[in-house]
Amino acid sequence: MDNESKNILVVDDDREIVRAIALTLESEGYTVLKAYDGMEALDLVATKNIHLIIIDVMMPRLDGLSAIMRIREGKNLPIIVLSAKSENSDKILGLSMGADDYVTKPFNPMELAARVKSQLRRYTSLGDINSQGENVIINGRLRFNLDEHVLYADDEPIKLTATETKIVELLMRNPGRIFPAEEIYSKIWNESAYSTENTVMVHIRRIREKIEINPSEPEYLKVVWGIGYKFEKH
Amino acid sequence: MVTNSRSIDPGELLRSRPTNTFKGLISWLCLLFILCAVSLLLVFAVMVLVSPGMTEYATDSVHEFAGSVPRHLEETPDGGYVEIQAPELVYEYGVKIVSAVAVMLTALILVFAFRQDRRAFEAIVARWLGWVWMEAKLIIIACFLVFLLSLMGNSSTPLIFTAGVLGVLLLYFLCLDVGRNRRFFGHNIIHSVLLRINDFHKMTTFQQRALRRAYSVIGVCAALIAFGLFGYGILINLLPPPHRDKLALTVPFVSVVGVIGAVWWYILSLKRDLRDWNLLMDQITEMYGGNLDAVNHVPPTSNLYDCAMQLNMIRTGVQKAVEEGTKADRTKIELITNVSHDIKTPLTSVISYVELLKKEELSPAAKDYVDILSQKTQRLSVIVQDVFEVSKAATGNISLNLDDLDIGRLLKQTFVEMEEVIEHSKLQFRVDIPDTPMLVHADGQRLYRVFQNLIRNCTQYSLEGSRVYVSLVAQSGLASASIRNVSKTEITMKGEDLTARFVRGDQNRTTEGSGLGLSIAKSFTEACGGRFFVRTDGDLFVATVQFPLVGGETIKGMA
Predict the structure, then answer these.
(1) Is B352's CB within 8 Å of A105's CB?
(2) CATH number for the A3-126 domain, one of 3.90.870.10, 3.20.20.100, 3.40.50.2300, 3.30.870.10?
(3) How far apart are the first and last CA of chain B?
(4) Do A107 and B351 touch (CB under 8 A)?
(5) What is the pLDDT of residues B340-363, one digit of tens each?
(6) How far A41 CA lies from chain B's nearest CA (Å)?
């Protein structure tokens, strides 16, 4: 793994949280730099070669969102925001300030590590995917190869059944469109649906468990409650 | 100083100046004097116009009046009289005219100079006039008219002048009275009697007051009718024959007018009472509808004033109580929100280090302990999130994403999502969801949380191996989903108590769960515009979620 060469800056005013994140990430092979407020973070960003930042919102001296805005003035590197606020509006604010991902406290460090990995992959490997000239659909950290009929998440192939692959292809070709379960059924199985919604629903749940970092809070394959399913555009 | 003086409007100064009653009296007397003089001149002019012969007599009497100046008149060819112009006469008249003009001018100047004070004085006079009963005023006017009638045959000049002056003065007072006192006809003997009879506001109940008013009007009417009949009977016998009938008829006429007035008064006061009733009822309706700002403005003279004021005070009290209640609730919820925020940070550390511990080489016992720690921290994390959500929903601080959605499909999706939980529970779910779509207007994500909580509730509190019945029906414009299960432990609480925050069916609180499941389900359902209720029947527990159907009924034949 080339994680050794990746420098990750972790910023939080709670030293124990910084240490826990650092331990988790170091066990994955990353090099971790620590800062305990926004100003320290800015200093480190200016002097060190950093590949990714994990930053808390509420901090003394300079808060996380202001720090992100200052960092964004000069650098384009992935930033993951940590916050105790779980409101949608807080998330939107964080993302509009220039953050790439938003993780609410309390979080599982393993999930954070997965997100770090995903962000780094996208950040470093986006260039070569385009140069390959393959027939692909790219959506965030997901890449569907239309020739091979294989879905990649963070450049790793996902094991999907034939039906699941068909569903993913259908949905990924129409990002943002809401598909009722019967429509998916009739398009995949080429039969009209008679209370077979459950089949589709179960398939979709399984796909979600394979492709989402946190299946209980899906980012890509979303349920539109009472209507159907859709593939979110990223 | 400069700015101060500039800010005062001169007109206001004049108006707000304290009025002097004495100056007012002088000015007023001058006005009366001028009125008399002008009326005398007018009467004189009219007399001259009516019969030129009067001139002689008039000048004569004026002369007599002014000090017996000898007449110097000469007959003119055309039959009139021309006054001989003698220097001494000019002198004599000149002095008188000049002094009369001087007096008039002085009076005029006084009238205008003290007009502010005069107006104030006129107001006082008008107030005095207002105290006089209408009947007395009518009698004075009648006397004057009788006096005028008696003048018809008798043309004694001083009487005519007196009549003219009296007429003008009476007219002035009448104008003053009518102009300033709005209740010219209202203030009369009958009205005063009725008011006196009904003036027991403090001592009696509303019913007694209302009855007394009705009876007093009936009594006064009866008295007036009796007075009219008796008066007519007596007058027809006593009066001399000519005009006897007509004169005698005035009495019943007056009594009829009195009866009409009394009935009119009764109707008016009844109308006022009913209007005030309406005001009170409107206020009660408004308050019942939740508008605690509704204040009634019943006038203090009203029969219902006490009641209205008490209602206003009750309103103020209720409003204050509600405000304090909301404030207390808000503080409580703010506290919960802050605390849940403060808990999240250390909880993050706990979860992180437990995860790190899991990776260490531990003895089997220690591994077991770490697993327990992991489970419990996970549960704590869920509770904190639930507390936060419920406090948000309770303050109405929740953002909704309302959309038309099929509640049946949502339920099916929920069951698919929760397949794992359901399989682990060893319960049998009997789900009866019709295929016809039932569209409701709600926030799908929240509604999913509602059903998720209800199903999770079933898996936690149901008797092991029992069946859970889930049904969705559309009836009378409502889609109602109900979940029935048999409780593991005896339910000792009422249904509505179970939906309160932190309340749990098992009093010893040993099971999993935050005690917020039903509370969240209720808050979210109500936030989306639905109804949520819980019913218990023995060990049977029934939770129902109701939403009005979009379009009022089931939409059939949707693809």
Answers:
(1) no
(2) 3.40.50.2300
(3) 85
(4) yes
(5) 778 888 888 898 899 888 888 889
(6) 20
